[in-house]
Structures are given as C-alpha cells and as structure tokens.
Amino acid sequence: MPLTNTACKSAKPGPKARRLFDERGLYLEISPAGGKWWRFKYRFEGREKRLSLGVYPEVPLAEAREKRDVARKLIAQGIDPAAVRKAEKSESVEQTNTFEAVAREWHAKFSPSWVVSHSGRILRRLEKDVFPWIGSRPIREIMAPELLETLRRIEARGALETAHRALQNCGQVFRYAVATGRADRDPSGDLRGALPPPNKKHHASLTDPKDIAALLRSLDSYSGHHVTRCALKLAPLVFVRPGELRHAEWSEIDFEAAEWRIPSLKMKAREKHIVPLSRQAVAVLREIQPLTGAGRYVFPSARSKARPMSENAVTAALRRMGYTSDEMTGHGFRSLACSALNEAGWHKDAIERQMAHAERNSVRAAYNFAEHLPERRRMMQAWADFLDELKAGGKVIPLHREQAG
C-alpha cells in the first residue's frame, strides 16, 4: 500500500531503524533518533543498490517520488543513478577547487591580519593578472608551464616587480591548497629563475644640504590643505613609511612619554614599533590636534574624517611644490634620514631598529621593539635639531653620535 503524507508525518522511531515502503523501490527510513531519510532500492547489473533521495520533511513525499522516477528512467537507459550522483558531486567539488576559489578562500582566511591596503593590493593583483587566465582551472591540474605563461603576460608589459609579486602570491595559494588537500604540490617553486630579476627600487631623495634645506622650508610654507602640510612637516622628523604616517591614530600618540606606538598589524615587518618623538615632532602634533584630535586619525581624509588621508596625498603635494619623482618621494624621507644617520656614525642597530626593518630572527624580534630606545631618543632629537639648523641656514649642529651624548 502506497505511503501517505499523514503516515510519513506521524511515523515514530523505534529501538531499531524502521522502513516504511512506498512503491517501486522507494521507502522512508526512520532512525532510532527520529531522523527520516528517503531511500531508493534498485538493482543494476545484477547488484542491489541504494540511493539517498533526501531528508523528510524537507523533501516531501511527492518530490521523493519524482526523484525515484528520474532514477528509474536512468536505469532503463542502462545508466547507474549512483554513478551520475557521484559525477555531479565530483563536478561540484571541482568547481570549488578552482584556483580562484582557493585563492579567495586563502585571502579571506589570512587577510584579517594584514594591513588593509596590503590586502587590497594582493586581491587586485590576482583579479587583474591571474584569475582571467587560470582562475577557472582546477588548482590540482595547474603545472609550472601554465603558471609561467600567466606571469609572462605581466612581464610583457614591463611590470617585472608585479610579475614577481604575483608569483609569490600564487605560491602562497598553492601551498594553502596543498595543506588543505586540494593540490599535490606547489608548481611556483619550479619557476625559480624563470623570470628576469626586477629592477631594484630606488626611493628618490635629496642629498645636497642646500637642497634639503630648501625642501624643509617649502614644507613649512606649503599652501595646500592644513592636514597635508602637517603630514609633510612630520614626515622628515619621524621617517616612517608613507602608509604608516597616513594611518597614524591619536590613540597611538603618548604625549607624556613623547612616543608614537604603532601596533604590529600596521607595520610591514608585523612587529610593534616605537617612534620617539622629538620636541619638534610633538609641536607638529600639537599644531594639528585642535583640528583632528576629536577623531580617530591624525591625518584624516579631506572627504571623510572616518578614513585616513589618501595614499598619494604627500607625493602629490611634493609634485605641486615642483619636486619630480626623480628628486623626492614620500618614501625619500626614510632614505634621507638613513643615509645621514649612518654617515654621522650613529649605532647601526639603533638606526635599523628605528627604520623598523624586518628582523630575520623572529624570536629576537618579539622582544626588541624597544631595543636601543635610549639611544634612539637621543638620535631622533639630534636629527630634528639638525634639520632645524639646516632649514634656518645658520651654523649647522653636527649630527655625529658623540655630539648627542
């Protein structure tokens, strides 16, 4: 006797699994825990088989019968419905295991610990230069020659550094795929030496004292937006990376200790960093505090105080002042300070720590964010005094280490 909706709904579990049979191989299996599953029993090539058709009541009786009838038609054509189900499942898994799907999963998993701008650059790089070519390919099937062909397209437009960065990101995706069981190996390792080395990036900066003095005076007299002018004035005094400068938050500034404490997530080396603030740096921050101190960012965007200033704001201001990209960049303040302090004989480790260059020894790095801090304080004040005298055009105070105590 065929099943009814009432019988399916009212069926109770027993101490063992129960089966309520419908017609033509369809039955409802009820577990001791109360779960109800539709099953279809059939024979194919002399063997008895079972096919799951879903869970009741999500799959009602009428729909279960339709699924049974579809399976019976396949059997009549000499096709095993279980084999069709397996192939469909395999195709579905294959679609979730494409390079793009795995790459987006990798990015979503790890990007929360990255600086927002860095995270965005990686995803845009993959979307522009990698996904259009291998994004739809099953990641397990991608071999070194196919990956190299993708990177050659980037190389062909002269973007060698981008090609190398894309290779690095692809390697990270492949290694994630290996770790999660969706690829057998990372083919990016086979491409070592296959791309020409990128041109070493040089951050333009001024070197002649007269030119530096003229630049400092130009920064003070910049007639653009006041927030940008203060950022320009602070940049040479702290010589952090441009991204670190524009993301500065008031909560990180300790006026009493005269320190700017940058959290690790904002730093390129992923280590928290202390910037000792000279008297001159404190003065710049005090100057802008009445304007932006009530908000989050020290240097907010002109359009929205909820966002930091544009990543191009400092560089654009330098261009408006007449400095070309071959003369000075936002990053050039770091190069200028690093060269001058090294030439003046300041402790190399103190300079490196203040520049926040990556520490190769990760155990040591966890403890040395405050290393050489007393000397770094003296160095930052001596540097600020040196810039003041240079800007004034008077007798320049020597920057030598021994002069700073």
List keywords for this structure.
3-stranded antiparallel sheet, hpI Integrase, Chain A, DNA polymerase, domain 1, Double Stranded RNA Binding Domain, alpha+beta, elongated, 405 residues, 3 domains
- Structural class, by secondary structure, is alpha+beta
Q: What is the CATH topology of the largest domain? A: hpI Integrase, Chain A
CATH architecture of the largest domain: Orthogonal Bundle
Percent helix, as a range, is 40-55%
Tell me the number of structural domains: 3
* Total count of helical runs of at least 4 residues: 17
First CA to last CA: what distance? 101 Å
Radius of gyration from the alpha-carbon trace, in angstroms = 33 Å
Description:
The chain is built from 17 helices and 7 strands. By secondary structure, it is an alpha+beta fold. The chain has 3 domains: about 5-95, 2-Layer Sandwich (Double Stranded RNA Binding Domain); about 100-190, DNA polymerase, domain 1 (Orthogonal Bundle); about 210-405, hpI Integrase, Chain A (Orthogonal Bundle), CATH 1.10.443.10. The strands form 2 sheets. The protein has a 4-stranded antiparallel sheet, with helices on one face. Helix 14 runs antiparallel to helix 15 (about 350-355). The longest helix is centred in the middle third of the chain and has 20 residues, at about 160-180. The model is unreliable at about 360-365 (pLDDT under 50).
